[in-house]
């Protein structure tokens, strides 16, 4: 029987089981991940994050060869046992965990580079939570999205942030609240890698004090409906700015069922980046026997 020491954390209600495996000796099986995330039989979470040193990654997974400055890699798994490239809430909680566990040298705590399957991301600790530079983004194909609670399928704009998103604008708040996201939305044509689907409505008025405000619910690939999705809020803001055209702000505030996240678009030498700011909480620690 294997016992695992873990910490439970969340960012705006998007919750994770975190554990440390510096030398990469304890990869979990999909069955163990599903057990940990089970809210009745396990700990309960939307995903699992294994803290592993980048240099311990197996060959082939060593995405960090070109950018060896990231000491730690975020090995992120969805609740159904599938891996994901990135997690915007998870990476803030992960940075908080590494600092709280004393796994990061004090001089590296202000800007912490973290390896992910979508490349190295910089996380900044600040007075108003953590900010992660999600890097570059790109538009991908439009698809039709049908969900329970919508009378007809709607067009969804594909946004790639390392992980795949489809953003669907709804007509009003009633439509957003009436969605049944217990079942996954149907996507046409079905994307090969699946997608996180964000449903969004503007607040009234959309722009206040130079900040655009929207409300969002999400059905996450591999986890179902969650209270928040960090990369999803960035995708939603990018899609809304795309639809709004010239004159849209670069500062966005996205309300999700678990709280509020701030998204900012800014120019860099390699093209536009998008960043995400929000809280990161560690709730409790424990030990559990794995199947
Ligand atoms: N909740 C996350 C995204 C987690 C991964 C996602 N379900 C996927 O499969 O891409 C976030 O905060 O970004």
Describe this structure in words.
Pathway: Amino-acid biosynthesis; L-lysine biosynthesis via DAP pathway; DL-2,6-diaminopimelate from LL-2,6-diaminopimelate: step 1/1. Belongs to the diaminopimelate epimerase family. The protein is mainly beta and 291 residues long. It has two domains: 2-134 and 279-290, Diaminopimelate Epimerase, Chain A, domain 1 (Roll), CATH 3.10.310; 138-269, Diaminopimelate Epimerase, Chain A, domain 1. The chain is built from four helices and 18 strands. It has an 18-stranded mixed β-sheet that branches. The longest helix has 15 residues, at 230-244. The chain binds the ligand N[C@@H](CCC[C@H](N)C(=O)O)C(=O)O. Residues 14, 47, 78, 84, 87-90, 163, 196, 220-223, 226, 229-232 line the site of the ligand N[C@@H](CCC[C@H](N)C(=O)O)C(=O)O.
CATH topology of the largest domain: Diaminopimelate Epimerase, Chain A, domain 1
User: Can you identify the CATH superfamily of the largest domain?
Assistant: Diaminopimelate Epimerase, Chain A, domain 1
Subunit arrangement of the protein = single chain
The percentage of residues in β strands lies in over 45%
Structural class: mainly beta
Top keywords for this entry?
single chain, 291 residues, mainly beta, Diaminopimelate Epimerase, Chain A, domain 1, 2 domains, 18-stranded mixed β-sheet, 18 strands, globular, binds ligand LBFN2T5F
Secondary structure elements and their pairing?
Layout: E1 2-11, E2 14-20, H1 30-37, E3 47-53, E4 72-78, H2 88-100, E5 111-116, E6 119-126, E7 129-135, E8 138-146, E9 154-160, E10 164-169, H3 173-178, E11 186-188, E12 196-208, E13 211-220, E14 224-226, H4 230-244, E15 251-256, E16 259-268, E17 271-278, E18 281-290
Parallel strand pairs: 2-3, 4-5, 10-12, 13-15
Antiparallel strand pairs: 1-2, 1-18, 3-4, 5-6, 6-7, 7-17, 8-9, 8-11, 9-10, 12-13, 13-14, 15-16, 16-17
Bound molecules: the ligand N[C@@H](CCC[C@H](N)C(=O)O)C(=O)O.
The site of the ligand N[C@@H](CCC[C@H](N)C(=O)O)C(=O)O has 19 residues, from helix 2 and helix 4.
